[in-house]
Amino acid sequence: MPVAVSIKQLHKQFGDLTALNGIDLEINEGEIFGLLGPNGAGKSTLISIMAGLCRADSGQVTIMGRDVVKQATASRRMLGVVPQELLFDPFFKVREVLEIQAGYFGVDQKNRAWIDELLESLGLADKANSNMRALSGGMKRRVLIAQALVHKPRVLVLDEPTAGVDVDLRQSLWSFVERLHNDGTTVLLTTHYLEEAEALCERIGIMNHGELVALDSRAGLMKRYSHYQLKLRLKGATESLPSVVGEALQRREADSIWLQVADDDQHLDAILTALKLADIQILSLHTHEQTLEDLFLELTAGKAA
Ligand code: ADP
Ligand code: MG
């Protein structure tokens, strides 16, 4: 598959702070890629470098084969970025914001039809002549998305697009992203919301402290770190447990134990067999599936600031 975004050994320092510590990542053309990470992980810094707004200390980034430094204009044409912050000139009307952006990219008058289509599909048609300052946060977010798409970029980057956005808008943004994806646009999405990455993204990278700590398909990531929690209510004391059970032990409650069980075909059997041999009777059993959220916490545990 052709590569839409190539990131090689990217480093960025802000004084003593290492914001990016050797990121290597390739995003394929046409995929929806999710970049997850806690605050301060370096997601927005990475996006600023992709957009040419910030210069890396070392490493290379290309967008559709164009180097973001050496072919800055060409690479910017390939890329639409929806920034995390809502920054606008409050005196412009919605349509003007889009027309100015189109002018910036040298897109001609025929673009009007596309601007109309964007306004329509983002639910902004009746706001086209409203001043930016009159819009709610969610509406401003939609304008930012339209602005990023005005020049029909091949790669769309959304930096935490649904932070602070209501559920309705979130749903409509997701279906809009899916539509763009079906039209062949490559999408890179950063998010805190795991359900967002779970619902939309084919591959997921997890960043923490400027490093990519995991990278896999959604299913692969879940599988690789796959285990589930098992709650067993036991008859009698839970103090002396067989070693295979003790090793899986996460916590104890009055008459119950919580175990972390690997999602393979041996671990559960070993645990149940050991309890049986030790004559410990199981009164009840509950399982709790690991979510991407659990996985995320596990991967970034102890490393978050
Ligand atoms: P994220 O988007 O994942 O929350 P950022 O890329 O915004 O993370 O920030 C990564 C780290 O770099 C943070 O510790 C942040 O404070 C720092 N940082 C980001 N931009 C600057 C800047 N312009 N000057 C100094 N430090 C910065
Ligand atoms: Mg950010």
H/E order of the elements? EEEHEEHEHHHEHEHEEHEHEEHEH
Number of helices: 11
Q: End-to-end span in angstroms?
A: 37 Å
The count of β-strands is 14
Largest sheet: 6 strands, mixed
What's the number of structural domains?
2
CATH class of the largest domain: Alpha Beta
Strand content: 25-35%
| Morphology call | elongated
CATH fold label of the largest domain: Rossmann fold
Query: Residue-averaged pLDDT, rounded?
Result: 89
**Biggest sheet, spatial arrangement of strands:** 6-7-8-3-9-10
CATH architecture of the largest domain: 3-Layer(aba) Sandwich
Radius of gyration: 24 Å
Tell me what the structure shows.
- Helix content is 35%, strand content 30%.
- With 305 residues, it is of the alpha/beta class.
- It folds into 2 domains: 3-222, Rossmann fold; 227-289.
- A 6-stranded mixed sheet has the order 6-7-8-3-9-10, with helices on both faces.
- A hairpin with a 3-residue loop joins strand 12 and strand 13.
- The model has no long low-confidence stretch (mean pLDDT 89).
- The protein binds adenosine-5'-diphosphate and magnesium ion (MG).
- Residues 43-44, 84, 159-160 line the site of magnesium ion.
Structure keywords:
single chain, 305 residues, alpha/beta, Rossmann fold, 2 domains, six-stranded mixed sheet, four-stranded antiparallel sheet, 11 helices, 30% strand, binds adenosine-5'-diphosphate, binds magnesium ion
Layout of secondary structure:
Layout: E1 3-14, E2 17-28, E3 32-36, H1 43-50, E4 58-63, E5 66-67, H2 72-78, E6 79-82, H3 94-104, H4 111-121, H5 137-149, E7 155-159, H6 167-182, E8 186-191, H7 194-200, E9 203-208, E10 211-217, H8 218-224, E11 227-234, H9 243-248, E12 249-252, E13 256-262, H10 267-277, E14 282-288, H11 292-300
Parallel strand pairs: 3-8, 3-9, 6-7, 7-8
Antiparallel strand pairs: 1-2, 1-4, 4-5, 9-10, 11-13, 11-14, 12-13
The structure holds adenosine-5'-diphosphate and magnesium ion (MG).
